[in-house]
Amino acid sequence: MGAEGNVRAAIGYTERTARKPYFYANAHEKDYVPLKPAEVEITDARGLDTDLDREGFVLVQHKSAVADLTDLDLVTRVHVGEIAELLRRVTGCDHVEVMPKGILRFSEKLGENEKHDNSHPARFAHVDMSKEAAAEARAKGAPAGKTVVRSAQYNVWRAISGAPQDVPLALCAYPSIQPGDLIDCEAIFDPPGGAPEWSFGNYVIAYNPAHRWYYYSNMRADEAIVFKTSESDPARAQLMPHGAFDNPFAPPESPPRISLEMRGTCYWFA
Fold first, then answer.
1. CA gap 33, 22 in Å, rounded
2. Which of 123, 261, 118, 133 is nearest to 204 (CA)?
3. Bridge partner residues of 224 (DSSP)
4. What φ, ψ does residue 86 adopt, rounded to 5°?
5. Residue 130 falls within a domain, yes or no?
């Protein structure tokens, strides 16, 4: 295991220009994301008392019954239900809709990215969906016949390749973000096999020295980061910026990161 503790590393911020940025899930050679990385302090959040509605992220203990979480068929059949139960437990919501498809991402040094769909670590800090796109998605997924008084989207992220992670996930605490830090962007999905492209709005992030960045060192497969990606209540944390960074504590022989993301929407009823 690598050393634990705070690190200094570059975060992939985006420079604001006259053009709206956009990026592709696979064909990154087509991206327009004018990166302007900045080296920042990234605090090891292990042992810290974080909250989903304050900072926007927590670390949870969660062991899956699926032995091989790279088996996306098993993930759909078994792990989706586990994630629904986890989100009910950590949020106290009444109902969860989990996206049936897990998202695997691979450290570039593994050489696996071209074999998979949407599998690159996000080398630029971003928010998964814009406020408007997320609100539309939450409304579309709401259970029929129920009066929804609150809804929120969550990402459940786990490293399944062993510690230390060479390319960990960094998260920016919600109270440190200003509205002007978010730059409108377009996420374009280009599925393999020639299926039609589709897109939605999200955000990339402009540098602000007030940002407070966190990560969890030496993650295990029986734990996961849960973080908030959108929220209907404006008083609670939401629009969580996150992105990959190169871990200076990870020696060259560290296992290349493989991670699994599961995404779910929680609903609270009247």
1. 6
2. 123
3. 60
4. -60, -45
5. yes
pLDDT one-digit tens code per residue, 211-250: 999 999 999 999 999 999 999 999 999 999 999 999 999 9
With CA atoms as reference, report the closest residue to 231 among 113, 152, 164: 152
pLDDT per residue over 102-159, tens digit each? 999 999 888 777 777 778 889 999 999 999 999 999 999 999 999 999 999 999 999 9
Structural domain total, the chain: 1
Question: Is the separation of the CB atoms in 121 and 167 below 8 Å?
Answer: yes
**CATH number of the domain within which 169 lies:** 2.60.120
Q: How far is CA 59 from CA 98, 191, 246, 264, in A?
A: 19, 31, 20, 16
Confidence check: pLDDT of 176 > 70: yes
256 falls within a domain: yes
Q: What are phi and psi of 46, to 5 degrees?
A: -60, 130
pLDDT in tens, 10-47: 999 999 999 999 999 998 899 999 999 999 999 999 99
Q: Does residue 216 fall inside a structural domain?
A: yes
Residue 203 domain-assigned (yes or no): no
The domain in which residue 45 lies consists of 41-175+210-269
Residue/partner pairs of 63-71 with CB below 8 Å, 24 or more apart: 63/221, 63/222, 64/221, 64/222, 69/102, 69/158, 69/160, 69/221, 69/260, 70/104, 70/160, 70/258, 70/260
